[in-house]
Protein 1
Amino acid sequence: MSALAPLEPRTLRICLLPGDGIGPEITAEAVKVLAALGERSHVTFTFDEALLGGAAIDATGSALPVETLDAAEKADAVLLAAIGGPKWDTTEPDKPRPEQGLLGIRKALGLYANLRPVRIFAPLLDASSLKPEYLTGVDMLIVRELTGGLYFGARARERDVPDAAGEGRPGMRAYDTMDYREYEIERIARVAFDAALTRRKRVHSVDKANVLETSRLWREVVHRVAADYPDVELIDQLVDNSAMQLIREPAQFDVMVTENMFGDILSDEASMLTGSLGMLASASLGDGTALYEPSHGSAPDIAGRGIANPLAMLLSVELMLRHSFGLDGAADKLGAAIERVLLDGYRTRDIAGDGSIVVGTVEMGDLVIERL
Ligand code: IPM
Ligand code: MG
């Protein structure tokens, strides 16, 4: 958080990581919108672009070049678009993969808390795959642990190991480990409870405690933390049930806190409540520089065609203005402008419905700026 007084003129340095696919297109819209917001305030945004993911592999052989990490650490905030694509897909363990860039930068910056707000825009009710009556009152925050669990536990692929039954059938074996330490659970639980205090004061802690040891530790620690938040209601929910409840009655959720992989899966599911993965923003926070990114991927199938939805990226900018810069006024303005554009009937193709005016990526950015 910035300690600067809100009215002091200041320069804020943003490290841009456009990445792959539609990444550069939606990044351009974010830059345009930030420049426009800067003109309307006492803040100047400066941009420093760096390589991540497939683009970085092509240029340097590594998905996370040291220069990129350097630029990210020096910035006041990092804005990442999307990484990956079929060009770099491989199952060969020794080949670099774009996702290593994303996971590497999350880990290196210590971004253990990933916040994914799921909010329904009234004009988009028809774009959801659920009937509108199920969406009334939906306003949830997914708090996903981001630097532990299966994503970072011990893993290996081994050759010629006899199978568990000892029958000597040789073959490949692979494993990933779900591994959590108490402090990792405790700090993410605090993020969730603190967030709940500013919202509807309810936390669903999602685990698989009927099967997994990590989940039983998770539950214990979350309950211990909950004791410090007597005003917040805590509900334990098993992850398979959560997947069902998200569709059955999504309005029951306020804050949902969960481990890395469960959070990855449930946040994609929850995004469809909003009508499109193209509407889901995220903030990844730790103790230093924070990173903001849409929750969607690089959509290589539509890259370069000018039709990608830039709104999750712009909503990520809104989160950045709020969480990293304390510019709540500018954040509110941006959020309202996005809502206004939707109310006026404009849609990119992914959220278009009957009677909407279909626009491209650049036009969508322009429409938002007009309404700032
Ligand atoms: C996300 C993405 C990433 C993840 C992938 C691209 C590695 O799905 O941010 O949700 O699994 O964390
Ligand atoms: Mg995901």
Protein 2
Amino acid sequence: MSRGRFITLEGGEGVGKSTLAKALALRLAQAGVRAEVTREPGGSPMAEAIREAVLSGAIREHGPFAEALMFSAARIDHIDRLIAPALARGDWVICDRFADSTRVYQGVAGELEPDLLRSLERVATAGLAPDLTLILDLDPRKGLARAARRSPDQGKDRFEAETLGFHRKLRQGFLAIAAAEPERCAVLDASRNPAALAEAAWLTLAERLTVPEAA
Ligand code: T5A
């Protein structure tokens, strides 16, 4: 049995990654491909516990390196328990955020040294890299407004509460990754409605990866 494909969705806050992940999984199911939808931080019990701790802001006082370590520990567990087994049995995995988020949130916006983060990423992922990364690009003011509308009763989490300058750096950071790794990454205009965005994402997926419908 051949290994499944690993797709990651990246971008700033509220750009529509979770919504798109579900839509893509549905399209894949219609094409006869089993796809597991998961997220980071999270996707396994230990990683979900780490998610709660980091997004509550409890780690913030220790700085971006401590947060990068937490995200990396969560990633190791997530890969071992969910991603690697799913890919090994031939399923596809659609993951809402992965290592690019650490590069951008803790690296670019958190100003950690790129060499340090590269080493950490190498250890945490053990060489697992996405086959395709869709970067959802959106004005951060619009993304933050979407995130606020989605959960008006909850306060902002650790990263949503950052300044607009921080969120602008995130956008530039993701675009820089896409420019540096065009074979792996594709940038999608996330200002479109969910159906139009899902259609554009599906066309990109069919163009870059062999899906049964496109074969
Ligand atoms: N983080 C994560 C790091 O700092 N380092 C790391 O290594 C990792 C892995 C995760 C936080 O952790 C940080 C980054 C994050 O700050 P999270 O809650 O998972 O926290 O945050 P996000 O990943 O940003 O998830 P969100 O749920 O906030 O955003 P999504 O998933 O991008 O957006 P979605 O689909 O939930 O949509 C948001 C709202 O907009 C609507 C939806 O209905 C929803 O109400 N919507 C659209 N509206 C208009 N047009 C569209 N195309 C829309 N798509 C969705």
Protein 3
Amino acid sequence: MAQLSIGIIGLPNVGKSTLFQALTAVAVPAENYPFCTIDPNVGVIEVPDTRLDRLHEILPPREKVAPIVEFVDIAGLVAGASRGEGLGNRFLHYVREADALVHVVRAFEDPTVVQPEGTSDPAEGLGIIETELALADLEVVTKRRQTAERKARSGDKEEAGLVGLLERLERRLDHEEPARAEHLSEDELKRVSSLALLTLKPMMYVLNVEEPDGSAEHPVEDRVRKWLAEREPGAVVLSESARLEAEIVQLPAEERAEYAGALGLQEPGLARLIRAGYRLLGLHTFFTIGESEVRGWTVRVGAHAPEAAGKVHTDFERGFIRAETIHFRDFVQARTLKTARERGLIRSEGKDYVVQDGDILFFRTSV
Ligand code: GDP
């Protein structure tokens, strides 16, 4: 399974690298994960989950293995990227590869940090990137619509059916709005999936603020939030201080939570960011307990048990027979599998079982 990757984009000097540095300071060695990309612009991060820590406590002496995501620092976006200006093409290539995007917006005020020309208004700066992504998609969609029309003229019904859908997307993109805003149905999404549209990717926004305190006034932050709320209602918007996060991760691991707490943060912002990314992608976690390790795995919300089995081993999906399962909550009360079994807390589920977040699964397979 390829790793999930989240691309970090934004204008120059908004704090992308600072945020990326904070992320990579808590990164795990990519060598340990055969499917990960080894690249200085890629950080492999464990998805923080206190449930896994708890299982590890109850079940020594086993190794603890957390699910991971890749963060990619995608620098180089400038106005005109969709026409190949700046590092345009390379930039768009990286964006295309990502499963989801984090768009970092500058919401700190610091006259010593230069802003690229014409971007001193953060909402406008944000718009520059959105426009470039939309224009890159518009080109793809227009080409595809022309092909569909040609084929439709020679009697291809399926292609004829696609024209209307592509025209809708074209209109949306032509207004420099993301294809996401068209809210396509599952079926429509399938029909355009081969186009790999950039603005269909799940996107969240990180407002890079000076200090994340709830009390003071934040005119810049408020403005950007308002702009986004009008343009993309329901968008995921987080406020983070990249600089503060970069400081927090310099501390020894056991002091980070305390320091974050002293600043009035419930947990370091990176944990929130990673979790939000997970939610945005429609993912959740199940656990396995083996002889030597207790491990968290990532699976789509709504996935059936065989798909989850396939995460553990590709052959397990094909050879899936049943899954014995107990929810994390019940297991923690029982504390041992033996007690759980005696209390009848372990169920046996078949191939139609929809995996729940926090399930502990034991797969029975014919492999
Ligand atoms: P990038 O070009 O988007 O990768 O931006 P960088 O991460 O390199 O940051 C650009 C400059 O802004 C650097 O000098 C950072 O130290 C500074 N910077 C980043 N985050 C903050 C912040 O929250 N507050 C202030 N005052 N400066 C920041």
Protein 4
Amino acid sequence: MTNAVHDNPARKRFELEVDGETAYTMYRRSPGIVTFVHTVVPAALEGRGVGSTLARGALEQVRAHGDKVVAECRFIAAYMAKHPEVQDLLVDAPAPPRAKPGLPRGVALLLDPLLNKGTAFTLAERAALGLRGLLPPHVFTLEGQVARALENFVSKASDLERYIYLTGLQDRNETLFYRVLVDDLERMMPIVYTPTVGKACELYSHLFRRTRGLYVSYEDRGDVAEILRNWPQPDARVIVMTDGERILGLGDQGTGGMGIPIGKLSLYTACAGIHPVRCLPVMLDVGTDNEERLADPLYMGLRHHRVRGQDYDDFVGEFLTAARAVWPKVLVQFEDFANTTAFRLLEHWRDQTCIFNDDIQGTAAVALAGLYSALRITKRPLALQKVLFLGAGEAGTGIADLIVTAMVDDGASVEEARRRCWFVDSKGLVVKGRPGLAEHKLRYAHDFHPIADFVGAVAALEPTTIVGVSTVPKSFDRRVIELMAEKNQRPIIFALSNPTSKSECSAEEAYTWSKGRAIFASGSPFPPFSYEGKTFVSGQGNNSYIFPGVGLGVVASEARRVTDRMFARAARALAEQTSEADLAMGRIYPSLTAIREVSAHIAAAVAEIAFDDGLAGVPRPADVLALCRSAMWAPHYESYLASS
Ligand code: NAI
């Protein structure tokens, strides 16, 4: 009989071969510890002391490695009890890993997208949380999971398929979803938000897989607070709410408009780190006037025409009151309401509760930020600008109102500031005395003679800046741009109408007709353009620069109201984040890759106003930027194990 006990790590056992038979003792290793689990001595070798030889040899090797022993195997335990010289090797079995309290276990944990880590649960977490056997054995890092997600993402045949894939990922594992977004926001934003989300809203009732957010329907009136209490998260802090009537440029999508609050809240988290647990998408379903949807047997919303008038306003009021009662610190963002509804609700509620309208105020702040950046190039003060708008709708009047707020902030009177904003709408220049002017245009109806067309207004008023928010493509034609370039060394030209097909002019047209002197920004992106050897990268006035940071500032300071002064400061903060290098290539907004840093600064600017104006719900800290940064969540996995 040979006596050589040897370690066979591949089979996790110490082995002893005798007369062609193998006796072995199996083990598990953890750092510094060998746990013996089971010993086998073949029948042919019994009664010959083989077991003792095996135990002695195995324990000698353990000692030689400086390890200790846990004896789960009864044979090894008995051997060690009988042999005092090996008892110093014995240690108690280490306590099994324990999970942090309050976590679900097993399948329930895997089905909770806010907590699920999928294949990234460590072996210890799997043991502690009842997950052993429920996952494939290899443990992945978050980076490894991102690689798999991206492989799936690129393999899809269309952007809509990519949207569906990402939605599924969000429903399975939010940390991984946000990591994928944050790592490549420029690539992911057009999928989770406009333009792809528009298609998803149109097809919502057909693509629907799993519910997300709250659907508050008109049939629930009277019970809205009770419905809100069904939401499982006790500390909702940002609600994005739509009634689905004006979804992007696609009109009334009824309940399908829910895609927009979901997408927009993804951007709150990705761009400004608002924790997903604090975000709540809401669809206020009051019916739809979209006949195609009403006739669709799969349509999931209320199947009647829109409730309007006082009944509608009362329902919105019930929702806002209930939301504030259930979540006293919540911010409600109105999203994609129809033009007149949007203005009315904003005016009615802005001084009563914590709300804002991104289409009006967020757009305005992005445009004002663009103007501030442009003025860093022209080196002219805001007070001396004359801005002529083409289009007097939500976007146009919202921008003008904020420019006025900013000028007043700088010391101008409201009247002086308004005289610097002019409008041309479908009926020509908006002037005092023009019959039938809508309420929101009256404050910009100045004493001037009527002018029928835009180019005539440019010639007569000699603006420093023109802003296109008309949805009329090509309305900034060659004559308009050449005239602007004739009157201004650096004409500021913003063609903000979306999508690209509606843009008032292209980047190429603005740069070519102004002989490379235009400072240009657009609503939809244009590719870089080279003119006489210089490459221009035009800015995209994307609302995502502003609203996430504003939301973060409100959340961090627990502000009770959202004011125009906050948006004006947010615009200034965004402009300050635009680097000299950006400006040198004509870009008046920072790169989206810097968005989380930009959002932190915008949040700080907003929070400062909340503190200055007595609107904050927490005491002012010494470092407001640090307060905002500390409220930002980043998509990393946290350990679920209790720290022993
Ligand atoms: P809206 O429907 O409220 O206003 C459009 C305005 O254009 C109306 O006053 C209308 O009378 C005017 N208009 C229509 N035809 C005209 C013509 N031939 N000449 C002069 N004016 C004319 O729409 P809203 O919400 O103001 O949006 C306007 C455009 O701005 C849209 O294309 C929208 O996509 C874009 N927009 C861009 C944003 C961005 O870049 N960040 C954000 C919000 C809107």
